[in-house]
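Thread: "does anyone have the structure for this chain?"

Original post by V.I.:
We have the sequence but no experimental structure in hand. Need at least a predicted one for the grant figures.
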Amino acid sequence: MASKKSDLPEGTDTVIDVPADEAEKGTVTKAKERIKDEASNLKTQATQQAREYATQGKDKATGAIRDVSAAMDDAAKSVDERLGESYGEYARMAAGAVSTFAEKLEGKEVEDMLRDAENFVRRSPVVAIGIAAVAGFAIARLVKSGLGERDDA
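Reply from O.Q.:
Generated one for you, tokens below.
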């Protein structure tokens, strides 16, 4: 709707003829753009935060794998004493393999690991589903056993 000159506040001598529908459309368009910008910013922040958490998780996992490798190497010495050097050598080889895995994991970026996992699932979807099922079963058993202990306490 257009304003008449008599409806204008004192000191205003210009009438702007803008239909209300167009003004509302402009406001809606600006609101949509602002929402898109905010959503984009939130997406960027969430992606960065997820990468940081994934990197922290990778670092913790690498540290834990290194600890397992060190424990296996220590166990190899004990195996040498109890069962003989040939059996200890198997334990050292296993410790070396675990250590090599930790080094490879440490050298990869999170994006590379995600890409590798995606490629594996594409090449072997049945195996991936099987691994997911076994992991889900193992996690469910761990959670269930942890909850059972709390109930007993």
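V.I.: this helps a lot. Helices lie at 20-83, 85-107, 110-123, 125-152.
O.Q.: and The longest helix spans residues 20-83.
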